[in-house]
Amino acid sequence: MTNSATPTLLIPQTRMAELDISSVSVSYRNHRTGKQQDVVTDASLEVLERESVALVGESGSGKSTLARVALGVQSIKTGEVLIRNQSRYATKRVTGQDSEVMGDVQGVFQDAVGSLDPRQRIDRGLGELRRRYPKRTEWISDAELMEQVELPIDLLRRYPGQLSGGQAQRIAVARALVVKPRLIVADEPTSALDLSAQAQVARLLMHLRNDHDVALLFVSHDLALVRQLCDRIYVMENGRIIESGAIETVMTCPQSVSTRRLIEEGGLHEVPGTGMNEHARGDTPEARV
Amino acid sequence: MSSNNLLSIQGLCATARDVNGGVIQILRDVNLELEEGDRLGIIGQSGSGKTTLIRAIVGLEHPTIKIESGTIKFRGETMYSDSCDRRAELRGSTLGAIFQSAIRSIYPFRRIGSQLREIVKFHHPELDKAQSLNRIEQLLRGMSLKDTDRILRSYPHQVSGGQLQRVAIALAMLADPDVLMADECTSALDKGTEADVVRLLDRFTNDGRSLLFVTHDLRLAGRVCDRMLVLLRGEVQDSGAAAEILAGACTEYTRSLLEAMPPWKPADGSWPADSVVELADRTRS
Amino acid sequence: MNPLARKVFTRVGTGLITVIFAATIVFFLARVTGDPTHQILGENASQEAIDQLRNQLGLDQSIFVQYAEFLSKLAVGDLGTSLRYGIPNIELILPRLGNSFLLTAVAVAGGSAIGYILALLGATKRGSLWDKLSTSIAGIAQSIPPFWLGLVLVYFFALRLEWLPSGGVGDWTHVILPAVAIGMIPLAYVTRVGRTSIVSVLAEDYVLAARSRGFSERQVLLKHVLRASAIPVVTVIGLLTGAILSSTVTVEVVFSWPGIGSLANQAIQGRDFTLLQAMAIVTAVVFVLINFIVDLLYEVLDPRIRTR
Amino acid sequence: MTIQTDFRPDDEPQVAEVPPVDTRRKLLLRKGSGILGAAFFGIAVLLCLIAPWLPIADPNLNDLNEALRPPFWLSGGDMSHPLGTDQLGRDMMSRLLFGGRLTLVMVLAAVLLAAVVGLLVGIVAGYRGGVIDTILSRLTDAQLALPFILLALTIVLAVGSTVQTMIMVLALGSWANFARIVRGEAIGLRKRTFVVALESAHIGFFGIVLRHIFPNLLPLLLVVAVLQFGVMTLSEAGLSFLAMGVHPPQLTWGTMLAGGKDYLDSAWWIVVLPGLCIVLATLSLNMIADAARDKFDPTIGRGANK
Questions:
Q1: Contact D268 C14 (CB under 8 A)
Q2: Chain B partners of A276 at a C-beta cutoff of 8 Å?
Q3: pLDDT in tens, A155-174
């Protein structure tokens, strides 16, 4: 997939918003000081039909929290989240009421193996989703699903612990796909994988975007991959969205200093000041034993 | 016995068990000679066995690793062979070591100053308190460590990673070892401090002492060392003068390291070429 | 609020909640028994006498009034009057506490010390016969009812061998057997937890580094391992307080040791439940205090908690 | 997090995580001792359960002529009472089997009760969090803070020592242990990615708790239950020793022990034998729990994957 798809610069106004996050703030209580601390401040973000949108930022910038908001597993302090123009919630964690849009948004996570229940066989997990969404999941059989994510069918009978990271992530994508979502929120889906698995998962996401009419909210700090995959980009820093726009525009002439730095450094840096980097954590098998 | 031959390793082989109970070779027939005043770089990527090598020299290899064969001699005396193991005698004032996770190598429950003084007292019992403090402060300042008073009074968790890394270097240097083994000792430091530490190591070796400098960074090794040993999967790929190796007189693997690009490619080749380069860069930085 | 004040405040608060909870359980349990007046006056007492006593004890009021009164008395340290002895419970309990404390302190100190030595043996000689021996001792010690061990010890050392007294107080020989019986619990747990803790400390990088700096194995153990591995051991002793107090009660009965255990036994024999209630509250207070001390010990042992 | 940590330039096999050779042997040893414990406990339970159908004497049959007979291997003992008799001439072996029967049944019921209560409290507190968690945790801590025996004595003195009361009292002394451990584990599970993934897929509260949280808690719960079984056996003995156990003709190992303590000098077996039964039962349970913990503990002896 060496041909980088030319992004659509003009967004047609007729497309509906799959996800519309407006002025959302999220705060955590700091247990040490007992004070409320904003991790996301007044963030607005929109993902249109069949659109791929990137959300990038340093670690700790709040991008994963915003992804959790999109997935409906994070309570918010202020703001509004709309799924296909239906209110998902105002300030509470999602409840069972908005059945129409339920299942429209599915997630894929960084920790691939960890995102699957270790004590549930893969096929049973899919079965659970099918029972939860009987109508939505009719469209594809398990076997076809495995074909879609390019995995052998016999993996269905395995437990998550028996999968490699790349296989587990493709299973996670399959679990998202089976309910025929309109939007997949992928929170750093490739960053914990080794290089060849990264390529496979990236290709799979690309395939979803092109062939399944699924919109994608791609959270990452990997700007190279983002450039391949996405039409538009939002940049976060310290809980705020500091820049957004068409991907090529932002990549070629970033407006803010932080974005420029992200692009220059490849967007990959440890949080400074912790004094730990990969070597201090041990990078040889000897150190890991 | 040659008078200036300090450390000599012959045919060192080590194995470990993998998760399935199989045996993996960690070191394959490694030979190494170190002379007085020598600065030898040991270069290798993750899993090359470089850490195992220097830990094995002082007999502190990880319990899962087993030395199969080989001899280790120090000043001509056999310290390790199939029949004897006296490596424990080398530790401290003969062979000082800074291990990879320098930051975690400092005891968390005592003040830094008291740990440093303990080392001075242990290896130089003749020094009084003022003298030993003086020595410690001199050494720390040589690594551009400011605010030494505060650091000496602090517990390890109260100072930054870069500062701790330098304390760890000081802990090894205070014993005045004949050979200093440093495993990735500059990895938590910024470029400026790295230069200070390199200068300090330089001065250290000027008075006839030797250095075993372990790193994954070929260029850094080029700045510090006279000779180099390049390891790949426990096997010596190249060994010789640093200048020659850096000039390109080496195996293809080392050349690929020199060209700032490890010799691997994604399995299916589908990855966009430019991002592969980018990833490769990052993994090394 | 500054962090220290906050810490003290939370601790005192948690302690108070625990004590009040204990007192509440105990209060309502006592009311389940029904009417204690029959116990005191016997079956043939006249209705008049019963009414008089009920009034005297406040039993004719509603349960909430009684509860409020109970708590307000508790707040000023009034734990009620013994049904059997007619004197304030607190005067019965306090003199006994000292005796129990002595016995328990000897048992915990001795048991922990021996347990820690066993742990060191096991951890430094992993897989050896010593290791198996110390693990087995811990396993067995954990499975023995302390009072039964007390009886067996009496049989051997007092009745058969006649080396040690079978009970009562006197010189230090009287402490040995009951202390051994109680000490088995700290011994068992300190051995187990200590071994795990020492093994994990021995795998730390700072131990490796200390060895590389030339320290001998003995020096490494004394300077680094001992202190670093003590923290989980202190934790487990804190958690065991309840179990140790419980075993003290039964063991004291075996050895007629004049502590709270024997007092509890007397209270049971005399069906003196106000005394038993008061004892439950007092032991809850003791428990809170011990855990307070354990917390302080943490701070001494681990500078990372003390300073930030 | 960045990708460096997991990145491996050359496809080297990963070195084994923990087990050095000696630990490995130790694991095997533990497993062996677990099987031994299970076998012993199984046989003991079986014997106790079939006791009414075994050709043994009535455990409550007095025969003062036969009182204080020693076990068969001592002089004066014979095979008519293989393990001797007590102060009233009752057959010790029969009493041990029948006593064990009630002890085990009572403790099992108490463990089940405590486990159910602890599981409910722990899951609700840990998985729901918030104010409910604060209240339930305080309650759990306070319960753990009370020295069990005085609480138990107060209750038994108040309501009398029937089998039902004993079960309630033992469960009361134990549920908080379950609750504390389950809560900790549930908090850990709630943060795990797979639970977040399930929440985002709108599998409801009960679905997640029943199909995901509970199965993941089960191994731990079993280990705690086995350990608590041992602890309760000891507690029951302690209560009985203080004359707060079940009343005759019902008997447990604890009440046998309590009844014999005055005959220690003349007939040690009345005290020692039931105590030995308690020790062996508890020991075998602890052996089972240790072996199970090694098997389920993710930090040691992990499977071949990952």
A1: no
A2: 103, 161, 188
A3: 898 888 888 888 899 999 99
